[in-house]
């Protein structure tokens, strides 16, 4: 039976009551007020004098302190409650009351050893000679006996503590796995856990975990405040019906659970493996009317799970969808885009090029698009008003793997050329004839608002993309792979505002080296101006490039503004060249990432400790670095400056060395 708010838990010492004192005082107040109103000053003096002589001020204070201590304890503020009991003990007349309340509070919080001590102290300091103390002595003895018994047995906190403390101070800190197991402890535990609305706000269900299935199966019989739900299953034992609403109301299936949570569920993460019969995407969207974010993973083709979107009507809440399937086509996603007209973020893995035609026609609400990305895609940051939609702002494709046909992706890029701020696209090369056809079809293709651009510099595409950015004033991050024409690249970049980040890889043509020299010389000259209003190059990433030599790396160090450097798989860099670079950057570099470079040895790692401003260091797949190099680094580095060290797949660095590093550096991450 649920307690009323006014009920007192019988397992807790009830507070003293003000009512007896208040009743006599109110009667006096009425008599005094009446005498004053009648100007009967003799009676007024008699009433007040009698009350002054008889009123026990300490009794009133004791009742107030005891009541407040009880209330603090019920709120979970044990320290404040104990402080009030100590105030009671400071008055000789309240001493037994104070010890009794203190011991009871400690017992309630499971501090049984301290409670036993408080009961004993109360018995020692309460005089048995005084008649008024006998009831308190009896209570202290009984409490001591109970505390000693409980101290020998496990304490059931959930049953003993008030519901407010369980709900506010315990439940929010329990893991889902703990709450699942706790459902089986007792009826009291089950009721308290199930009746706490926020307990299942974020729920993960896995058909390989019987405890999560136990929770999932009781959703239809309870009203839960589920906002985020993740379902992982490969089972095909549960099915849905085309007439989803009728089925939901009478069958204990997964759809019933979605129906029960439809008002609160806003985030849903589903991994159905090879299952194609559990539930369809259209059914989910129709049922969960407040769903804003949906992640759906399957090992089957999406066409087997889409369902019939034409019967669901427009969905006004869903704004973020992430799908991973065996195959996703434009035909699969078109009905979804038509009915879910508020989608602002769409990320798809294992899709084909037909999706670009559909998105060009139907994706007017999209702001972020991911096409087979093999890296994390930015999340939606703010709410958006449909009237203020700006068009597609960020487009990410795969980085490596299959190239995208220029003819397929360019209609979408052209449509959103004035809104794109981020474009990471792996577009296939085009012939000279195809390039001129692109110029003819898209004569005014310019990326006027682009801030971050990544493309693979294949024949024809480099020329087309560089032309698209030649007049931009917003480009800050430039990332590329391969290099068809180094001089053309440098000429374009020298005509733009200074980049803040420059990353390039797979430059294997040695003839490109002079062009890169000219680019970094250009940045060096800008870095010497000390103009704080001008943008500055801060980050350089060079990798997998035969064109990068010792001399070119030394030229990079002459750019005085950059302080973050990433180097990887550079075969033409020598140990001496790397050491010269480090010595030039000793008071400049704050962030360093080194990956797959055999010339990096223990001596070089130890020398990194001389970098005066280095606060982040990441070492990946360095087979010639051993414990000795890390120990040398630790001996020289200022651990108040270098606060994070990441060691990733360095085979000759042991766990004992990592343990030593963790004693010196604030954050050490070891991946092996």
From TrEMBL:
<dbReference type="InterPro" id="IPR032675">
    <property type="entry name" value="LRR_dom_sf"/>
</dbReference>
<dbReference type="InterPro" id="IPR011990">
    <property type="entry name" value="TPR-like_helical_dom_sf"/>
</dbReference>
<protein>
    <recommendedName>
        <fullName>F-box domain-containing protein</fullName>
    </recommendedName>
</protein>
């Amino acid at each position: 039976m649920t307690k009323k708010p006014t009920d007192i838990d019988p397992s807790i010492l009830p507070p003293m009551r003000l009512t007896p004192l208040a009743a006599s005082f109110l009667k006096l107040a009425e008599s005094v007020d009446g005498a004053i109103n009648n100007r009967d000053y003799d009676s007024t003096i008699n009433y007040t004098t009698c009350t002054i002589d008889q009123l026990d001020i300490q009794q009133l204070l004791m009742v107030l302190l005891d009541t407040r201590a009880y209330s603090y304890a019920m709120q979970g503020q044990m320290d404040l409650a104990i402080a009030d009991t100590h105030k009671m003990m400071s008055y000789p007349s309240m001493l037994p009351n104070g010890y009794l309340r203190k011991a009871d509070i400690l017992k309630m919080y499971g501090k049984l050893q301290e409670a036993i001590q408080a009961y004993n102290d109360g018995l020692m300091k309460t005089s048995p000679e005084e008649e008024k103390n006998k009831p308190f002595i009896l209570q202290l003895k009984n409490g001591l006996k109970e505390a000693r018994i409980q101290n020998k047995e496990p304490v059931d906190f959930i049953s003993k503590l008030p519901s407010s403390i369980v709900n506010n101070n315990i439940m929010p800190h329990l893991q889902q796995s703990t709450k699942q197991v706790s459902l089986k402890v007792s009826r009291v535990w089950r009721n308290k856990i199930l009746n706490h609305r926020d307990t299942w706000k974020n729920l993960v269900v896995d058909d390989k975990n019987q405890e999560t299935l136990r929770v999932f199966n009781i959703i239809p019989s309870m009203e839960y405040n589920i906002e985020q739900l993740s379902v992982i299953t490969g089972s095909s034992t549960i099915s849905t019906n085309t007439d989803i609403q009728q089925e939901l109301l009478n069958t204990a299936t997964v759809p019933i659970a979605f129906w029960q949570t439809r008002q609160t569920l806003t985030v849903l993460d589903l991994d159905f493996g090879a299952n194609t019969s559990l539930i369809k995407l259209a059914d989910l969207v129709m049922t969960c009317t407040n769903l804003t974010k949906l992640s759906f993973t399957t090992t089957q083709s999406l066409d087997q799970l889409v369902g019939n979107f034409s019967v669901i009507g427009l969905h006004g809440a869903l704004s973020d969808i992430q799908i991973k399937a065996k195959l996703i086509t434009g035909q699969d996603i078109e009905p979804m885009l038509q009915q879910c007209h508020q989608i602002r973020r769409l990320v798809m893995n294992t899709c084909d090029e037909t999706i670009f035609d559909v998105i060009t026609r139907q994706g007017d609400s999209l702001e972020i698009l991911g096409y087979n990305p093999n890296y994390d895609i930015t999340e939606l940051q703010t709410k958006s008003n449909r009237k203020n939609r700006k068009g597609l702002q960020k487009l990410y494709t795969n980085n490596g793997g299959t190239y995208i046909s220029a003819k397929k992706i360019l209609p979408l890029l052209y449509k959103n050329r004035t809104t794109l701020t981020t474009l990471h696209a792996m577009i296939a090369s085009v012939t000279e004839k195809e390039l001129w056809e692109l110029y003819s079809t898209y004569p005014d293709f310019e990326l006027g608002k682009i801030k971050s651009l990544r493309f693979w510099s294949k024949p024809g595409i480099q020329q087309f993309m560089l032309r698209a950015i030649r007049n931009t004033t917003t480009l800050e991050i430039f990332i590329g792979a391969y290099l068809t024409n180094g001089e053309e690249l440098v000429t374009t970049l020298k005509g733009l505002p200074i980049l803040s980040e420059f990353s390039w890889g797979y430059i294997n043509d040695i003839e490109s080296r002079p062009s890169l020299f000219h680019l970094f010389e250009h940045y060096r000259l800008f870095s010497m101006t000390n103009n704080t209003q001008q943008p500055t190059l801060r980050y350089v990433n060079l990798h997998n490039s035969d064109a990068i030599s010792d001399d070119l790396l030394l030229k990079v160090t002459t750019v005085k503004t950059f302080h973050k450097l990433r180097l990887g798989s550079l075969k033409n860099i020598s140990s001496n060249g790397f050491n010269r670079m480090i010595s030039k950057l000793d008071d400049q570099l704050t962030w360093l990432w080194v990956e797959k470079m055999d010339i990096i040895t223990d001596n070089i790692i130890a020398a990194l400790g001389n970098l005066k401003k280095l606060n982040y260091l990441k070492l990946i797949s360095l087979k010639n670095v051993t414990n000795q190099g890390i120990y040398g680094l630790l001996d020289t580095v200022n651990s108040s400056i270098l606060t994070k060290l990441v060691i990733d797949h360095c085979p000759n660095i042991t766990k004992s060395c990592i343990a030593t590093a963790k004693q010196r550096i604030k954050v050490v991450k070891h991946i092996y």
